[in-house]
Amino acid sequence: AQSVTQLGSHVSVSEGALVLLRCNYSSSVPPYLFWYVQYPNQGLQLLLKYTSAATLVKGINGFEAEFKKSETSFHLTKPSAHMSDAAEYFCAVSDIGTSYGKLTFGQGTILTVHP
Amino acid sequence: EPEVTQTPSHQVTQMGQEVILRCVPISNHLYFYWYRQILGQKVEFLVSFYNNEISEKSEIFDDQFSVERPDGSNFTLKIRSTKLEDSAMYFCAGGQTSRLVYGYTFGSGTRLTVV
Question: A33, A60, B51, B94: which could form a disulfide with B25 (CB 3.0–4.6 Å)?
Fold first, then answer.
């Protein structure tokens, strides 16, 4: 069974600073990996996904993530935080072999950006 | 951009009452999902639905829960006799394919409060 661990339930950065949100996964088979963002009172929006192609994945809003198999990690980064990045971020995993597309989510990381 | 629409956005119900949460998927979606997020906890998979059948369900999805797509458009989640612990945000999602390489789209959620 897969599991996802997001280190840090809250991360606070200054505007313009590097954003680093950590995600580690466990999976018995090569996974698909995802980052979703949830703004207040909104649904889950896909930021980016890793699906066995390039290990460095670029997403929307300047975010990117690197799949590191040796570290079983898929950390999300952004070089320069913007106030509008304040939201909750979820890492999710799915087995490539999953027939019906079930996702397993981490517990989420709330990102706060202060001036 | 097409959206997955969920209604209502917020529902309050008394313990023991039946509730039906509604979702209008994007028209070309074939695979449908319900997830829930109890306040402060992970987003959890409930059920996947394809070809008018449940294709996978979690341990959470017991006999109190049911799903259907009665008219080929709306996708509903019914909770027969709500409990306090059913209070959560419920997300509907849909995709054209079960292959997560294409991702799927989440609705903005229904917040269910059981009192």
Answer: B94
